[in-house]
């Protein structure tokens, strides 16, 4: 049986979060069919319906080439196939070149359908890599610039409007600026969406791990309870054997050894089943983890007792009236992550202050480390924001903690203490924290 290390788990999560699902081939095929039908209808309408003289043969060949390519792609690929980033870029690159050819034959930028140049770069910006989007954007800009200079005249009847070079320049400028603006805008929005999705996925990973740990703890506690009776029987029988067997005999020594080892096992089982101050053996169901606030914080701090940082818990209030709450995986992980980050950056000491009243509960986590840099404070809470100078990686943790604590009804206030060091203040309405159902 292999056991994964924390570093291996982090690497696996990073791979899962950053892996690209690619673009669904069938979606691009549908989009191209729409383009082909639109192009064919426009050529037919202009050439036959309106009677304009178009280079019908080369234009039809270009449209037919796209249709044939689409048919071949559909036959040779499964509908659920997802293209790699490179494959999708080449697919869209062909569409841009085919559109360039059609527009060259039908008036260049004077053709109102030149607006369709924005489609490939927009698809790329919302679904593909930054490098691929840059490549398609440059391809589009070059194609627009070439069409502004070289194209067949728009087949207008004599006496129709003649478009000046100034107007062509205006169309060129509008398409170039539109390409740059839409590409940048779409990329920015989709990038933020991808980062948020990855961060939420990381939060699900964290909660799943926390729930697994809680489940393991519940199994251990149940095992301790079930093993108690047979182990007591072994203790009783081994003690009687050690008394009945001749003193100094090998059998008597074996009986004493058996009794000693069984006694140690009983002590371990007693700790697993009765010790209330360990977070290793919480029950699986949050309904059975109803604890005072101070006990919950002690559970959170216990995990960090061996990292060399002193964690001091200060209680301000009557302990008999302190709030009681369910130790859900969300709270355990959210608070644990904040305390862990404070311990990581602290020089020697992390102070956790607990305060409560009839209406509000407040937890202040403060360390004696360097604190947050000014430029990063406004960005904390966003996923993948490095929070302290010279260190990295806390941004995602703060995002997850903020999300989990907000879900529990709390609010995070992150900043630096006047005396130095980082300070996180978490507040809850007491009625929300002491809820009757841990899953609400």
Structure description:
This protein has helices at 6-18, 25-49, 56-76, 85-105, 118-127, 130-149, 165-244, 250-274, 293-302, 329-345, 374-377, 394-407, 430-433, and strands at residues 23-24, 82-83, 290-292, 310-316, 324-326, 349-356, 360-367, 411-416, 422-429. A hairpin with a 3-residue loop joins strand 6 and strand 7 (360-367). It has 440 residues and is α+β, with helices and mostly antiparallel strands. Helix 2 packs antiparallel against helix 3 (56-76), helix 5 packs antiparallel against helix 6 and helix 6 runs antiparallel to helix 7. Helix content is 60%, strand content 11%. It has a five-stranded mixed beta sheet. A two-stranded antiparallel ribbon has the order 1-2. Strands 3-5 form a two-stranded antiparallel sheet. It is elongated. It is built from 13 helices and nine strands. The chain folds into three domains: 21-163, no CATH class; 217-274; 286-433, Heat Shock Protein 90.
User: In one word, what is the shape?
Assistant: elongated
Low-pLDDT segments, ≥5 res: 1-20, 275-281, 387-394
Specify the CATH architecture of the largest domain.
2-Layer Sandwich
Compute the number of structural domains: 3
CATH superfamily of the largest domain: Histidine kinase-like ATPase, C-terminal domain
Which value, in Å, is the CA radius of gyration?
34 Å
Entry keywords:
about 450 residues; alpha+beta; Heat Shock Protein 90; 5-stranded mixed β-sheet; two-stranded antiparallel sheet; 13 helices; about 60% helix; about 10% strand; disordered N terminus
